[in-house]
Amino acid sequence: MSTLEVCLVRHGQSVSNAEGVWQGQGDSPLSDLGRTQVEALGGALAEQRYDLVLSSDLSRAAETAKASGVEVEHDRAWREIDVGDWEGLTMEQVVERFPEQIAALKDRRAFAIGGGESWPDVFQRADASLQALRKRMPNGGRAIVFTHGGIIAALLSGLLGVRDQFPWPLGRMRNTGRTTLRFSGPRVELVAHNDDSHIPVALQQAYEPRPDQVVVQLTSVAANRATDVTVAADFNSEIKSARNAGAGGVVSVSGTSHQIAELAQSTSGASSREFRFVEPLQGRSSKLLISESHQMLLDYGLPIVQI
Question: Is the peptide bond before 167 cis (omega within 30 degrees of 0)?
Answer without folding.
Answer: yes
